[in-house]
């Protein structure tokens, strides 16, 4: 039996970088749609971009064929060009001198990808794509919520 094909759109935002941050995701399967969002009191835009994909994949209850749309070239390139897997193999080092940024989230994302057949598609942000625009609104709204929790993996360094 062919796995379900789920279309996912994601976005991350921070109000200040670092600052309060949020993520948003829209998952589509057939005629069904589900929205996810959340936020933290102090984080970065890139952390929220990665977390949006993690949370969307975590919402899937079985292995699926997935197309992830993101306006983050950081996320798209780190996965499609193999950067994140290379950083992982090298003990979360980008090269001999520089540590990879956000290794906690890259570790989670690489694990979340395993059960699925995932393709990544870059979309231009703020270019009128309805699902990308919706994710942007979800992320910004989440970042604006009162009493946000701390981002447990953010150490204040970029």
Produce the secondary structure layout:
Elements: E1 5-14, E2 19-29, E3 32-43, H1 45-58, E4 65-70, H2 73-80, H3 83-89, H4 103-113, E5 117-122, H5 130-143
Parallel strand pairs: 1-4, 4-5
Antiparallel strand pairs: 1-2, 2-3
Helix pairs in contact: 1-4, 3-4
Provide tags for this entry.
alpha/beta; 5 strands; 34% helix
Could you explain the architecture of this structure?
By secondary structure, the chain is an alpha/beta fold. Helices cover 34% and strands 28% of the residues. The protein has five helices and five strands. The protein has helices spanning 45-58, 73-80, 83-89, 103-113, 130-143, and strands spanning 5-14, 19-29, 32-43, 65-70, 117-122. It has a five-stranded mixed beta sheet with strand order 3-2-1-4-5. A hairpin with a 4-residue loop joins strand 1 (5-14) and strand 2. The chain is globular, with a radius of gyration of 15 Å. The chain starts with a strand and ends in a 15-residue tail after the last helix.
The largest sheet is: 5 strands, mixed
Number of helices: 5
The class by helix and strand makeup works out as alpha/beta
Categorize the overall geometry.
Answer: globular
Give a brief description.
Helices cover 34% and strands 28% of the residues. It is built from five helices and five strands.
């Amino acid at each position: 039996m062919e796995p379900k094909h789920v279309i996912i759109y994601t976005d991350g935002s921070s109000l200040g970088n670092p600052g309060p941050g949020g993520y948003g995701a829209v998952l589509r399967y057939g005629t069904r749609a589900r929205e996810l969002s959340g936020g933290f009191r102090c984080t970065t835009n890139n952390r929220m971009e990665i977390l949006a994909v993690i949370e969307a994949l975590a919402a899937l209850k079985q292995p699926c064929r997935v197309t992830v749309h993101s306006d983050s070239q950081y996320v798209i390139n780190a996965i499609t060009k193999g950067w994140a897997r290379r950083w992982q193999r090298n003990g979360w080092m980008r090269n001999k001198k520089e540590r990879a940024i956000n290794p906690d989230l890259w570790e989670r994302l690489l694990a979340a990808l395993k059960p699925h057949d995932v393709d990544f598609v870059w979309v231009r942000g703020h270019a009128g794509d309805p699902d990308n625009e919706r994710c942007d609104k979800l992320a910004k709204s989440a970042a604006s919520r009162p009493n946000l929790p701390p981002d447990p993996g953010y150490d204040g360094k970029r």
